[in-house]
C-alpha cells in the first residue's frame, strides 16, 4: 500500500532539489511530537522544504509506529513540502515496516559492510522504496561517532562512490568529508576539494551527515560545492535541552505544557537558523 494522501507529504525527489542548485534541504531528526512540531513550524515560517527524520535511538525510545504517526500528523498540517525519512537503518526489514507505515524516504546504512554487501543490500532497499513511491539514500565512506578526526581511509573514494550509485540506483548518497556524528559544538572542517570531485563525478544529490559539528562557513561552502541534503540531530537536542533547563531554573512553578512550548520554540529557532545557512528559505514549491 502506498501512502500518498497527505497534501505536501512528499518524497525527497519532490522537495525541489536539483543537481546544479545552490541550496540544500535540511534533514532534522525528531524524537517526539514536540520535535516534529518545532521543525514544521520553522519550515512553514521560512517557506522552506524540510525532512522529518526518524532515527534508531528514537525508535528504540518511543517505537517506530507512534513516531511515524506523529510525523504524519504534523506533516498533514503543513503548507510546505515535508518528507518523512528513516535514518541509518541497518535492518532491511525495519525499512520495509517503515515504508508500510508511510515514510516517504529511507536510508540503508551499509557503510560499515564490505563494499559488495553494501551494494547488494542497498540495491534491495532502493527497489523496495521505489515500489512504495519513496526515495532511497545509501552511504559510501564512514562518518564516525565521537571526537577524533576522520581518518583519510574513512573518507569517500570518488570512483567507489560512482560505482555504488550506478549499481544501486540510489536517489541520494551520503559521503564522508570530515564530519563526525554526535558533536555538541561546531569544530569540524570539511574536505571541500574532495566534495568538488564527488559533485563533478556523481549526478545524484550528495548528503552531509553530522552537520551539527561542522563550522558554519564549511557548511556554507559545502552547499556551494554540491551538498544538497544536510543532516542535523545533536544541535537540535542541545538547543532544546538548554531552553528547558533555563525555563525550569527560571520558572520552577510553571506548567509542564508551558515548559514544552519553550522547547518547541527553541527547536524551531535552531531549525530556522539552519534553513538560512542552507539557503533553503523561500524554496518551498
Automatic annotation (TrEMBL):
CDD domains: TBP_aldolase_IIB. Dihydroxyacetone phosphate binds at residues 182, 210-212, 231-234. GO terms for molecular function: aldehyde-lyase activity; zinc ion binding. It comes from the Bacteria. One of its GO terms (biological process) is carbohydrate metabolic process. Binds 2 Zn(2+) ions per subunit. One is catalytic and the other provides a structural contribution. Zn(2+) 1 binds at residues 88, 181, 209. Keywords: Metal-binding, Zinc. The active site is at 87 (proton donor). Transmembrane segments: none annotated. Zn(2+) 2 binds at residues 109, 139. Its cofactor is Zn(2+). NCBIfam families: cbbA (TIGR00167). This is Class II fructose-bisphosphate aldolase family protein. It comes from Oceanidesulfovibrio marinus.
Amino acid at each position: 500500500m502506498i501512502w500518498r494522501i497527505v497534501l505536501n507529504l512528499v518524497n525527497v525527489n519532490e522537495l525541489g532539489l536539483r543537481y546544479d542548485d545552490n541550496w540544500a534541504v535540511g534533514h532534522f531528526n525528531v524524537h517526539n511530537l514536540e520535535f516534529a512540531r518545532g521543525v514544521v513550524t520553522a519550515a512553514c515560517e521560512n517557506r522552506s522544504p524540510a525532512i522529518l527524520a526518524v532515527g534508531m535511538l528514537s525508535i528504540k525510545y518511543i517505537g517506530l509506529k507512534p513516531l511515524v504517526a506523529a510525523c504524519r500528523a504534523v506533516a498533514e498540517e503543513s503548507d510546505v513540502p515535508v518528507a518523512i525519512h528513516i535514518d541509518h537503518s541497518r535492518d532491511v526489514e525495519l525499512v520495509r515496516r517503515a515504508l508500510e507505515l508511510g515514510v516517504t524516504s529511507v536510508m540503508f546504512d551499509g557503510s560499515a559492510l564490505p563494499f559488495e554487501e553494501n551494494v547488494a543490500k542497498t540495491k534491495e532497499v532502493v527497489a523496495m522504496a521505489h515500489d512504495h513511491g519513496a526515495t532511497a539514500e545509501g552511504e559510501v565512506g564512514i562518518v564516525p561517532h565521537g571526537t577524533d578526526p576522520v581518518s583519510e581511509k574513512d573518507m569517500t573514494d570518488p570512483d567507489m562512490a560512482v560505482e555504488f550509485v550506478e549499481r544501486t540506483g540510489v536517489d541520494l548518497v551520503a559521503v564522508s568529508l570530515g564530519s563526525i556524528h554526535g558533536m555538541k559544538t561546531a569544530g569540524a572542517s570539511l574536505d571541500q576539494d574532495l566534495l568538488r570531485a564527488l559533485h563533478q563525478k556523481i549526478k545524484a544529490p550528495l548528503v552531509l551527515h553530522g552537520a551539527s559539528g561542522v563550522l558554519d562557513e564549511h557548511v556554507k561552502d559545502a552547499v556551494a560545492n554540491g551538498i544538497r541534503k544536510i543532516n542535523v540531530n545533536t544541535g537540535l537536542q542541545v538547543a532544546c535541552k538548554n531552553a528547558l533547563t533555563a525555563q525550569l531554573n527560571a520558572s520552577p512553578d510553571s506548567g509542564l505544557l508551558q515548559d514544552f512550548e519553550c522547547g518547541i520554540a527553541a527547536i524551531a529557532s535552531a531549525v530556522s537558523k539552519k534553513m538560512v545557512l542552507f539557503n533553503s528559505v523561500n524554496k518551498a514549491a
